[in-house]
Design brief:
By secondary structure, the protein is mainly alpha-helical. The protein is 55% helix and 6% strand. The longest helix is centred in the middle third of the chain and has 48 residues.
């Protein structure tokens, strides 16, 4: 009634509830305590006219909201279906949900009602999966029949192959049969888990048949063109143009039945046809020259850049000219050899901060070593000058 509060007594068949939905069925009505009914959308509850009691009822039924939503979502398509079978299923499960709500309102303990709704949810889900399997098989059968008919028509009226090894249409029909057998086998063994959404079941079933059909033709082409030399079936090796129509049927059936057969062959073909990177078409790089021989860069001798001892007037150790530098040449030691390039900490993937610290330490060490060498060279050069200075007074005295 306009302007008045909606009460339990206002729940009547054909009337509209507080959400303006039409009331279609009343499961229980206990004025002024509660009413459980079904409208055009779901099973609903009208709580007590007493505010305190209504608040407690809402608290008790709140824990059931998620289960109620799941069940309602699973059967919503059945509730509005044009088929009476699905409508009757929806009404049955709506009745179970209503019974659980009545139990919760009467007892005030939602745990029992929750267990009942969980069982109802599992039953609905199991029935949806069962129907999904049937739906999957039905559409796989339709796709296989259509594909078989199309290939047969093309074989007889459009493009006819004369020899069995070239007959793609025969292999395609065998692949269609193999794919359908795979679907039936998987459903029977319960290894195929269909979706509760009808469109997904339809697309999966049709694509499974189409993939089997195409895979059979591709495998026949791979064998006929020697891209795949042969395949082994038991103790027999199947290959080339010598296949009979029986062998073509078996090859096509296997390609449709075993989902990974043709993709696996294609992967192996791709890997075997890929050239080794940097190897010159699969060849190996020439070995490096041994140290001390040859005249290439990095060879041990021969007076070439990067070699060992180099000929000429310059001292190979210290880079001095013996004609102008009076100091004796120092013998070459292992320390005088140029160090080999080494990987830094950054190259090894170390922490950048640690790598920077290590680099700074190396630079400081190299700088200190260079300064020490310069100081030593200065001291060596100062010794003759000191001797000449000391000799000057003696010469003066003699004069």
């Amino acid at each position: 009634m306009p302007g008045d509060r909606f009460t339990v007594d206002d729940i009547r068949l054909g009337a509209r509830d507080a959400t303006e939905a039409t009331i279609e069925h009343i499961y229980a009505k206990a004025p002024p305590l509660y009413a459980v009914y079904r409208n055009s959308d779901r099973v609903a509850v009208q709580y007590s006219d007493n505010e305190a009691l209504a608040d407690r009822q809402r608290t008790d039924t709140a824990v059931l909201s998620l289960l109620r939503s799941e069940i309602n979502g699973l059967i919503d398509g059945w509730r509005h279906s044009s088929r009476r079978t699905f409508q009757s299923r929806a009404r049955r499960y709506d009745g179970e949900v209503a019974a659980a709500l009545i139990q919760c309102l009467e007892e005030g303990h939602p745990e029992h009602a929750r267990s009942v709704m969980q069982q109802t949810r599992d039953d609905v889900l199991g029935e949806r999966i069962s129907w999904g399997k049937s739906e999957y098989l039905i559409y796989a059968s339709i796709a296989a029949a259509i594909g078989f008919a199309i290939l047969t028509f093309v074989q007889h009226y459009i493009f006819t192959f004369k020899t069995p090894p070239d007959n793609l249409w025969l292999a395609g029909r065998a692949g269609t049969a193999g794919a359908f057998f795979s679907v039936a086998w998987g459903i029977w063994r319960r290894s195929i888990q269909p979706n509760i959404r009808g469109r997904d079941n339809i697309s999966d079933a049709v694509l499974r048949i189409v993939v089997g059909m195409i895979a059979a033709g591709v495998l026949l082409l791979l064998l006929g063109t020697d891209l795949v030399p042969n395949i082994t079936i038991g103790n027999a090796h199947v290959s080339g143009k010598a296949m009979t129509w029986e062998v073509v049927l078996i090859v096509g059936f296997l390609a449709g039945f075993v989902e990974r057969l043709v993709p696996g062959l294609l992967d192996n073909t791709q890997q075997s046809g890929t050239a080794t990177p940097g190897g010159g078409g699969g060849g190996q790089n020439p070995p490096a020259r041994q140290a001390g021989g040859g005249n290439g860069p990095g060879a041990g001798g021969g007076g070439t850049p990067g070699g060992g001892a180099r000929s000429g007037t310059n001292d190979p150790v210290a880079g001095r000219d013996p004609a102008t530098d009076p100091r004796p040449a120092q013998p070459r030691t292992a320390a005088d050899q140029p160090p080999e390039p080494q990987r830094t900490a950054v190259d090894r993937g170390a922490d950048p901060a640690a790598a920077a610290a290590a680099a700074a330490t190396a630079v400081a060490a190299a700088t200190a070593e260079a300064q020490a060498e310069q100081a030593g060279a200065g001291a060596a050069a100062a010794e003759p000058r000191a001797a000449e200075t000391a000799a000057e007074p003696v010469a003066t005295a003699r004069n």
